[in-house]
Design brief:
It contains 13 helices and 15 strands. By secondary structure, it is of the alpha/beta class. The strands form three sheets. Strands 1, 2, 3, 4, 5, 6, 13, 14 and 15 form a nine-stranded mixed sheet that branches. A four-stranded antiparallel sheet has the order 9-11-7-12, with helices on one face.
C-alpha cells in the first residue's frame, strides 16, 4: 500500500456514516476535529510548524531556508457533504503531505516557504455557504453575515466558532496573510468523467463553472391529513413539488445549465400532517454569469407563481454566489512547464481555489476518478493515480518554489480591502 493510501486509510473510520453510506464530516463537528488532529499529527511528524488562523484555517509550514519570500501554498479541505466520498478534500490534504515527503527525498530545500492549508467548511454543509473559510479570508463574505448563519440545530456560526476555539471578533478578511501567498495550488479528485474519457491520470484545471445556492421558504397552512378536503388545502409540499420539476425543466431548456434541489425540509414533517412550511435549496450553475443571473430570476418567478397557485407564499434568498473562474493563465503555463504534456479540464464543482482566485494566483490539479461519481460513496481514486497526483503536485511545488522573487506567478488580482 502506498503512503498516501495508508494515510487515507487511517481516517476511513472518521465520520463514516452507516445510515447514508460514505462519510458525513460536517464543518466543526467531532469528525472534523478528529481530522484536524490527524492532519496536525502528520504535520508534526514531518517537523512542520502548524498554526490555526483567525478564520479557522490550518496552516502547516515548511521553510528550511528561513525565507521571508511569499509562499507557495497547497492544500484543500477535510469536511464533507452528508454521505460524501472519501477523496473530495482529504486527497488534496494527504497529497500535500506526501508531496513534502517526495521533495525531501529529492533533497529539495525550497528557497521560499511551502505551506499546506486546510480550509474549514468548504462544502457549506453546516452553515449553507460553500467555502466559508476562504470566503472569510478573501473578504468574499461579510463577517457579520457569516457569524449570523445558523446550522440545522439553530446554532449560529458565532456560537459554534467560539466553542471551536475561535474568537468571533477576529473572524474576517486577512489581507496580510494573502499578501504572503505567491500562489495557491489545490489538488482535488476529479468529480466527473473528464479524465476517464481522456484516459489520463492527472489534469490541470482550466475553469470552474459559476454557481450559487438559493434558499426557498414556502408558507402554507399546517393541517390534518384526514379531515382537510383536497380543495381546502394550502399545502407547501405540493407547491415545492411543482417548483422542483419546473426548475429542472428550466435548466433542461437552457444549454449548459445545471439546477439541483438536493435538500428539502418540511415543517413539522409528519406522515399524517399537511406541512405548514417547506424549505428547500436550489443549486444553479452556468458558465456565463449573466445567464446564471437570468436563470435565478426565472426560477424566482416560477417559484412565486407556483406558490400562488397552491394558495401559499414563497420567499427566495441567495445564500452564496460564485462567478465562473478561469484559472490564471501564467500559473497554468508554469504547471504545464513542470508537468509536460498534461490535459487541461474545466469543472462544474466549486473549490476554495475558485474563491481565492479573486485574491491570489491560483491553480488546480485533478486526479482521475474511475467512477466519474462524486458527492457520493461511489467516488473513487485508484492508488496508482493518487501517487501520480502527489508526484505531479511535488513537481509543481518544486517548480513554483524555485522561481525567483521576480517570477510572474501570474496576474495578482486586486482584492477589495
Ligand atoms: C462543492 O463541491 C460544490 O461544487 O458544491
Ligand atoms: Mn472539494
Ligand atoms: Mn465537494
Amino acid at each position: 500500500m502506498s503512503a498516501l493510501a495508508g494515510m487515507l486509510g487511517e481516517i476511513a473510520g472518521v465520520g463514516a456514516d452507516a445510515a447514508r453510506g460514505g462519510f458525513s464530516r460536517a464543518g466543526y463537528s467531532h469528525a472534523d476535529r478528529e481530522l484536524r488532529e490527524w492532519f496536525t499529527a502528520h504535520a508534526a511528524v514531518r517537523g512542520l510548524d502548524v498554526e490555526r488562523d483567525a478564520n479557522g484555517t490550518l496552516w502547516a509550514w515548511w521553510n528550511p531556508t528561513g525565507s521571508t519570500e511569499p509562499a507557495i501554498i497547497t492544500g484543500s479541505h477535510l469536511d464533507s457533504v452528508p454521505g460524501g466520498g472519501g477523496y473530495d478534500g482529504p486527497l488534496g490534504v494527504a497529497s500535500a503531505l506526501v508531496a513534502v515527503d517526495l521533495l525531501r527525498a529529492r533533497s529539495f530545500a525550497p528557497p521560499r516557504p511551502i505551506g499546506i492549508a486546510v480550509f474549514p467548511e468548504e462544502e457549506g454543509s453546516r452553515f449553507g455557504v460553500a467555502c466559508l473559510g476562504s470566503r472569510l479570508m478573501s473578504g468574499a463574505i461579510d463577517p457579520s453575515r457569516a457569524l449570523a448563519l445558523t446550522d440545522r440545530e439553530g446554532d449560529t456560526f458565532a456560537d459554534i466558532a467560539r466553542r471551536d476555539g475561535l474568537e468571533p471578533d477576529r473572524i474576517g478578511p486577512d489581507p496580510r496573510r494573502l499578501d504572503a501567498v505567491a500562489a495557491f495550488v489545490e489538488l482535488h479528485v476529479e468529480q466527473g468523467r473528464g479524465l476517464v474519457d481522456l484516459d489520463r491520470p492527472v489534469a490541470i484545471a482550466s475553469s470552474i463553472l459559476g454557481h450559487g445556492r438559493w434558499r426557498v421558504t414556502i408558507d402554507g397552512q399546517g393541517n390534518h391529513a384526514g379531515t382537510t378536503l383536497m380543495d381546502d388545502r394550502r399545502d407547501p409540499m405540493v407547491a415545492a413539488a411543482r417548483m422542483i420539476v419546473e426548475i429542472r425543466d428550466l435548466a433542461r431548456r437552457t444549454p449548459d445549465a445545471r439546477a439541483t434541489v438536493g435538500r428539502i425540509e418540511p415543517v413539522p414533517g409528519g406522515t399524517n400532517v399537511i406541512a405548514s412550511q417547506v424549505r428547500f435549496w436550489i443549486d444553479i450553475r452556468h458558465p456565463d454569469d449573466l445567464i446564471t443571473a437570468a436563470l435565478v430570476s426565472e426560477a424566482r418567478d416560477l417559484v412565486l407563481a407556483a406558490a400562488r397557485e397552491e394558495g401559499c407564499r414563497a420567499d427566495v434568498r441567495e445564500e452564496s454566489l460564485s462567478p465562473t473562474v478561469d484559472f490564471d493563465l501564467g500559473l497554468r503555463d508554469a504547471l504545464q512547464a513542470s508537468l509536460g504534456d498534461v490535459p487541461e479540464l474545466g469543472t462544474g464543482a466549486g473549490h476554495d481555489a475558485g474563491v481565492l482566485a479573486s485574491a491570489v494566483p491560483t491553480a488546480m490539479l485533478f486526479v482521475r476518478n474511475p467512477t466519474g461519481i462524486s458527492h457520493s460513496p461511489e467516488e473513487l481514486v485508484e492508488d496508482t493515480d493518487a501517487e501520480h497526483g502527489a508526484a505531479a503536485l511535488a513537481d509543481v511545488l518544486q517548480g513554483l518554489a524555485s522561481a525567483g522573487a521576480e517570477a510572474a506567478f501570474g496576474h495578482r488580482p486586486m482584492m477589495a480591502r
